[in-house]
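Researcher: First entry.
Model:
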Amino acid sequence: MSELSELVARLERQVREAEEAHRIANGLWEACEEQLDELRHISSALSELSWELDGYIADCDYSAVERAAYEIRGATDADRLLPVLRQVLLLRALRDGDTLPDPAEIESLPELPAEEAAHPVLTWEELLRDSQKELEEREASLRQIWCDEGDEADLEDALHEARTEAVQDRATRAGRHLMKLCEYIAEELCPELVTSTENGNIQEALKVLAAMDAAGKEAEPAYKVYEVALSEQYESSPSSLGAVGEHLMLFESWLGTQ
């Protein structure tokens, strides 16, 4: 009976140890998934922000567009995300029984070569150049249409409309550049970051995070281009800004009375 009792006791101890190991494994899995979810959420958050930006741009809501630019930067800031990435890589290694990464290896991001920073970039000079080229082509087409004697007034009206629309189009394009930035990060970089992290590919994960950080930094200068383009539109045709234009005109009138 003593041998049987010892066997039972040993089996019970093994069961308890197995249950404890299972509990620890589950805890590691849940902790790892919780941190991974924070990385996974970036994609959906930026996709939703891109959709919201479409409405802000249509309404010429420059303050909402500015807030969105700050949100893009915040969502991709490496200072915030690198600690999360480090935790995921460590938890994943513990969970899967892999060799723990060298702390020095995951302490900082690698330098990203300029050619690997493939995020969309738009400067005011580029926007103006492309817009001017399209306007010149449209003006040439209008001059061919309104080329008969007596068409001068109609031609002038058509040219004026084309120039006004070109100004408005610049503001729209500048705003939509922020949408492109959101979509690039959400559709190109976020999946790569999550996949490389899940696979424990440390160097690739760090490299993608560096690219994401660089793309997020583009949001502020992109907004500045939009701000310049919208200011140009307001000076050209305040009423084309809808409610925002009316509000600004009333504010200017009020300032004029002070």
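Researcher: Second entry.
Model:
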Amino acid sequence: MKKAFITTLLCLSTLYASAASAAGKAGELFFRSNGQEIHINRLISSSGQVTSISLHNRCPTVGQCATFAQNRELYENLIKAIKNRQIYTYIEVDYNLCREPDNPCQPEGIEPAETQPFNEQYSELSALQEDAIIQRTREVPNPKQDGPLTTLYNSILTTVGSISVTRMVDHLLGMNNVRKTVMHTRMIDGREQPISYCKMSLDRCRTEEDVIIARLDSETIGISYPKGRDVHEDFDRERDLYQIMTGLKYACRIAYTGTWPNLVGQMTCHYQPY
């Protein structure tokens, strides 16, 4: 049994590591809180129920946005965003500046008379160049009504019997079957890097002291965390951390040290923006 479980953990590690590391915003969920874009990372059970919500918040400086009141406000604005259908994602659209109607793509310093017509320029491109132009995309925001979050909202509304955001957030923060966390990040050396990770309750956002985030070098982040003491809690934490780091454009690999059930997960993440 022990051997089978360890094998399962290693398989999951391989599965996580094989995911695309340079993910953009397309398909991810966001809302706005006090003008700041907040990334929603939620985990869904096989029955379609939300089991974990993690909000990713960028802080100007360490400790500046980590008070309980500030973290609670994130969840209040999340409830408002679900209620008002203000959750959004990004979609990729084909884009080439030279194909914009009002942009002739005239090279700088060349007079119009000396510029070859765009259609003639385009006809002379090689197939490879043509593919490069056609495949060029950009991400644009797009409204998204997320089913699992809407279901969670409706269940809270039914239980509370009131549209009061304060009462709904109180109920959400008191739910034992849904993990509520906040990952705080900061721009360091031009890269967004994690600085703290806390778990929400009714009266505080408790820093998970067993989750240790270390900056190994300018492009590598190491995260260690418990694995095996609480199967569901530990599994959700690991998936949450992995998905957050993937969203931050890090490629992560996972290894385990120690012996069951006192394993320690070691997540090593390398920055890969492309």
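Model: Note on the second entry: The first strand starts at residue 29 and ends at 33.
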